[in-house]
Amino acid sequence: MSSLDSLIVRFAPQDPDFIADPYPVLNQIREATPIFWNERSHQWVLTRFHDIAATLRDRRLGRSYSHLFDHEEIGRTKPDPRWSSFHQHEQWSLLCLEPPDHTLLRRLVSKVFTPRSIAALRPNIESLSAQLLDDCQDLGTFDLLRDYAQPYSVAVICSMLGVPRSDSELLLGWSHDIVKMYELESDEATKIAANQAAAEYIDYTRSLIAHKRKHPDGLLISALVQVEDEGDTLTEDQIVSTTMVLLEAGHEATVNTLGNGVRALLKHPDQWERLMSGQVDAKTAVEELLRWDSPLHLFERWVLAEGVEIAGQTIPIGDEIAMLFGSAQRDPRRFSNPDRFDIGRGDSSHIGFGGGIHFCVGAPLARQEIAVSLEGLVQRFPSLSLAQEPQYHPTFVIRGLRELLLTT
């Protein structure tokens, strides 16, 4: 076995020890090769920032191939009909579509999901944050994820969409079950739970859409029902997929960035002090939280055209490329002293929110939610500390903690 092969064997997304701290292995593989073939997942895997950034923007690749090819044409099996509700819920997701469908849908969504509408949410976001952090203050020791980040992020999504806050636990449960399908491997029980969650969410959203048609409230679902541009409108299926991707991506990104990021801050007291003293503001610090321990570690695209060459490797139509965001975010070719956690770095051109046409439409909202949270933590908990060392969920694609117990 070659030295490179021995390194690639250590890329083990199912290994708890690897999950606990994947960066030493990712760093070694990245420095050894910009690309490798993963026999277990049957994917080309990219490791370096500039290759990944270029691939995200390369229109010869896509998140889907079904708009150009039948499954059989490129040697792929048809989607398993047992998981039809899961596939239906993401059929019109902005993360899965390619032009022209993506162009149309993003144009319509962008008409209601504007910077102005996001800015208008700030007073409500600050109020939700303050209420939950005040409750945490009374506990002495609290779980940042269970007691704050999860109810906070879902409450923000509910208030934005126009979903009753009393239904937030439903949305939280559906999101948790569905996103597990995006891991490199999923067992039968995970697939059953994800499909059931998707089916329930579809039924729920259809009922909500019907209600908003009769009782518009000016919030996002109501606005999506009414939006029109040059004669184009959104279908019910498109609204279902759009709201679901906002829930899944928005909730998971906010919760996991807060968990991973606050852990990093408290493991680096000098950086926590920079935030406490006001030397670095929360808005700047958010970017390093997104870079240093990214909530999304892998993103995939399909090769859709002949002649694609990445990092010196020619890749045929129908092959899949996996981009290691966690590796790229620590690439010394792009970031100076990348393993150093430096909240004053302020580099917003990382790939924590993806890139190209699939750049996260909810990035401004997530940045605002995280910054408001950091400001609230600093104001209330000057002596905040880890109650115990947390453990990460046994997942690789979406990286986040099981809990984060903090002492005030």
Describe this protein's structure.
The structure is a single chain. This protein is of the alpha+beta class and 408 residues long. It has one domain: Cytochrome p450 (Orthogonal Bundle), CATH 1.10.630. It is 51% helix and 10% strand. It has helices at residues 3-9, 16-20, 23-32, 49-57, 84-89, 101-110, 115-120, 122-137, 144-161, 168-179, 188-214, 220-226, 236-267, 269-277, 282-292, 325-328, 363-380, and strands spanning 35-38, 43-46, 61-62, 141-143, 228-229, 232-233, 298-303, 308-310, 313-315, 320-324, 385-386, 405-407. A 5-stranded mixed sheet has the order 1-2-10-7-3. The longest helix is centred in the middle third of the chain and has 32 residues, at 236-267. It is globular, with a radius of gyration of 21 Å. The N and C termini lie far apart (51 Å). The model has no long low-confidence stretch (mean pLDDT 91).
Query: Which second-level CATH architecture applies?
Result: Orthogonal Bundle
- Report the principal-axis shape: globular
Computed over alpha carbons, the radius of gyration is 21 Å
The number of distinct β-strands equals 12
Reading the helices and strands in chain order gives HHHEEHEHHHHEHHHHEEHHHEEEEHHEE
Q: What is the oligomer described by this structure?
A: single chain
What is the fold named in CATH at topology level?
Cytochrome p450
Helix content: 40-55%
